[in-house]
Design goal:
The protein has 2 helices and 2 strands, in the order H-H-E-E. It is α+β, with helices and mostly antiparallel strands. It is globular, with a radius of gyration of 13 Å.
Length: about 50
Amino acid sequence: MKMRKKRIRVSRASIYRTLPLLVESGLIEQADRNGKHAHYEHTFGHGTRAS
């Protein structure tokens, strides 16, 4: 949303290519996968993840 307010454009492909890097770095985690759609939640600043 911040990028949209500043009128910065990012392609959808760039977002999808970046998701695995964000998961690997621990900033987000895959929360749910329904069929062909995955849902992610941000984890940065929420303490450590359960192992």
